[in-house]
């Protein structure tokens, strides 16, 4: 009986069939990147807002004021009272008399003058010139509630974390394509509900669920692609990451042409329903079928692959070699039972955590620099393309470990240098910071590939999902770490980033080299990797 890799080589390791499946599934990376970075555009700060004084709504309606006129009458007394006050977050501690003159609604305070009136913190009656432009104006995430905007991204990352555990486990137990399709359906439904959420609580719950389903679809599609191609073509795993970058570059264009957050949310969510058509185009992973003792189904799929690739499988093949290892449902302890699995898991978890924390931290740090949001965001995505090209050039020549380690170390050194460069050399700080972004992008893209190659088929989806859950933890911590440390010293986050990255660079050198090796089928195969 032939092994799976022998049959795959005869059927074609990356023929017409695999290229079609690769292209179809890679679209998931585009929509995943939309959700991953969408908060930048969903949560844009409103250009103008103020706190309405009690009685102002009735008086404004009676006097026929425009929003601009009401705004001036509301904020002018605050300017007179306190030049340094946070005018948008405060209001006059009084009530407008709706019976007075429209020209001077504060006339009854007479000689004291408007400038001497007391003021107090706003209690929620904000007015926005564009009330539905973003979730900030939709749910009043301003002033004392501004922290809730950061919470929305933390909730999304917690959803990623939940999806990594639950759907990663489910994909190893119930099948790759079933969980992929269910996840895509969940992303679409939850995304639509988020767009029409009546309050912040509903918004947060379904944003969490959308994150969970999105992580399930992204990780499962990656595993399916890696399991149907040959060992010499696994560099394709890096190509999948390029589609993520393409999504990052497309997103600002969507946000530029759609003027409100509901429209943006629908635009990034509805395409997931199209992925349900893959039921007729993408088969179950034959590797997974073999681990579940379903050799006949696996062989049938391999014959279809060979046919589409213009190849021919010997009719004498009646079944494919199946591992004698007892098939069991994956568990958390399986990641740590044996020495090599334990070492690989711990190092990969740290690598995922570090990559996500630094990557998101550098992206958000770029975002607070000001300038044209849409153009800056596009450029920050375009910077990632050279990183992918560097990987494609080096990874099959010198292996996985050297570029993995170098990417982390370059990122760490670049962050450290950027922290101590003088402010009067902004071009140099930007250049060195961009080099750090290149380095951490390389590390981030390689960890996907290496993680897939270091786990057996019986545990691969769960292993990738478990380790990448630390990525979601890093993403949850990143906004709070960045802004809290920056409040102490603007460059302090870069010092932390540099330490984490350099340590990671040396740790990944302890992982086994997987260049040119077949994917391990069993835990014993992993233990034999040197």
From TrEMBL:
Protein's membrane topology: Multi-pass membrane protein
Alphabetized UniProt keyword annotations: Cell membrane, Glycoprotein, Ion transport, Membrane, Mitochondrion, Nucleus, Transmembrane, Transmembrane helix, Transport
Gene3D superfamilies xref list: MFS general substrate transporter like domains
Compartment(s) where it occurs, according to its Swiss-Prot or TrEMBL record: Apical cell membrane; Basolateral cell membrane; Mitochondrion membrane; Nucleus outer membrane
Any one biological process term the GO annotation gives: serotonin transport
PROSITE patterns attached to this UniProt entry: MFS (PS50850), SUGAR_TRANSPORT_1 (PS00216)
Domain Major facilitator superfamily (MFS) profile: 74-516
Reaction catalyzed: tyramine(in) = tyramine(out); guanidine(out) = guanidine(in); serotonin(out) = serotonin(in); L-histidyl-L-proline diketopiperazine(in) = L-histidyl-L-proline diketopiperazine(out)
Transmembrane residue ranges: 21-42, 154-171, 178-198, 204-225, 237-258, 264-282, 347-368, 374-395, 402-421, 427-450, 462-482, 488-511
InterPro entries cross-referenced by the UniProt entry: MFS_dom, MFS_sugar_transport-like, MFS_trans_sf, Orgcat_transp/SVOP, Sugar_transporter_CS
GO cellular component: apical plasma membrane; basolateral plasma membrane; mitochondrial membrane; nuclear outer membrane
Highest taxon listed in the record's lineage: Eukaryota
Pfam families listed in its UniProt record: Sugar_tr
One GO MF term: neurotransmitter transmembrane transporter activity
Family indicated by similarity: Belongs to the major facilitator (TC 2.A.1) superfamily. Organic cation transporter (TC 2.A.1.19) family.
NCBIfam families: 2A0119
Protein name listed in UniProt: Solute carrier family 22 member 3
Organism: Nothocercus julius
Biological classification of the source: Eukaryota, Metazoa, Chordata, Craniata, Vertebrata
Gene: Slc22a3
């Amino acid at each position: 009986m032939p092994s799976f890799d022998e049959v795959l080589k005869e059927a074609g390791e990356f023929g017409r069939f695999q290229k079609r499946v690769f292209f179809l599934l890679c679209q998931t990376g585009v929509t995943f990147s939309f959700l991953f970075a969408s908060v930048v555009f969903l949560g844009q700060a409103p250009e103008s807002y103020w706190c309405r004084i009690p009685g102002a709504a009735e008086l404004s309606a009676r006097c026929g004021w425009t929003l601009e006129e009401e705004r001036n009458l509301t904020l002018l007394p605050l300017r007179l009272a306190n030049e340094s006050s946070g005018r948008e977050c405060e209001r006059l501690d009084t009530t407008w008399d709706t019976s007075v003159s429209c020209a001077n609604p504060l006339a009854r305070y007479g000689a004291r003058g408007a400038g001497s009136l007391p003021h107090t913190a706003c209690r929620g009656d904000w007015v926005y010139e564009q009330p539905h432009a973003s979730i900030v104006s939709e749910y009043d995430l301003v002033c004392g509630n501004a922290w809730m905007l950061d919470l929305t991204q933390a909730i999304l990352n917690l959803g990623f974390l939940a999806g990594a555990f639950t759907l990663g486990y489910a994909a190893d137990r119930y099948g790759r394509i079933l969980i992929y399709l269910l996840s895509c359906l969940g992303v679409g439904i939850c995304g639509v509900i988020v767009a029409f959420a009546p309050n912040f609580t509903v918004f947060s719950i379904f944003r969490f669920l959308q994150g969970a389903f999105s992580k399930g679809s992204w990780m499962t599609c990656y595993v399916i692609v890696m399991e149907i191609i040959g060992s010499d073509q696994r560099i394709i795993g890096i190509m999948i990451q390029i589609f993520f970058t393409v999504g990052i570059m497309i997103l600002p264009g969507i946000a530029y042409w759609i003027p409100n957050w509901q429209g943006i949310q629908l635009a990034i969510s509805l395409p997931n329903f199209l992925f349900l058509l893959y039921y007729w185009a993408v088969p179950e992973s034959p590797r997974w079928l073999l681990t579940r003792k379903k050799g006949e189904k696996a062989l049938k799929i391999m014959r279809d692959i060979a046919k589409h690739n213009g190849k021919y499988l010997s009719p004498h093949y009646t079944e494919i070699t199946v591992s004698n290892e007892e098939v069991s449902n994956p568990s958390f302890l399986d990641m740590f039972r044996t020495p090599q699995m334990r070492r690989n898991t711990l190092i990969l978890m740290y690598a995922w955590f570090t990559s996500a924390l630094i990557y998101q931290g550098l992206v958000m740090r770029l975002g607070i620099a000001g300038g044209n949001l849409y153009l800056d965001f596009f450029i920050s995505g375009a910077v990632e393309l050279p990183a992918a090209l560097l990987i494609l050039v080096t990874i099959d020549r010198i292996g996985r470990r050297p570029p993995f380690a170098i990417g982390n170390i370059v990122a760490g050194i670049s962050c450290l240098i950027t922290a101590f460069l003088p402010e009067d050399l902004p071009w140099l700080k930007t250049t060195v910071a961009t080099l750090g972004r290149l380095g951490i992008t390389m590390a981030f893209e390689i960890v996907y590939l290496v993680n897939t190659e270091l786990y057996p088929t019986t545990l691969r989806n769960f292993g990738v999902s478990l380790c990448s859950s630390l990525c979601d933890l890093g993403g949850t911590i990143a906004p709070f770490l960045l802004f809290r440390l920056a409040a102490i010293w603007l460059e302090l986050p870069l010092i932390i980033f540099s330490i984490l990255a350099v340590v990671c660079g040396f740790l990944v050198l302890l992982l086994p080299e997987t260049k040119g090796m077949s994917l391990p089928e069993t835990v014993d195969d992993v233990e034999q990797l040197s």
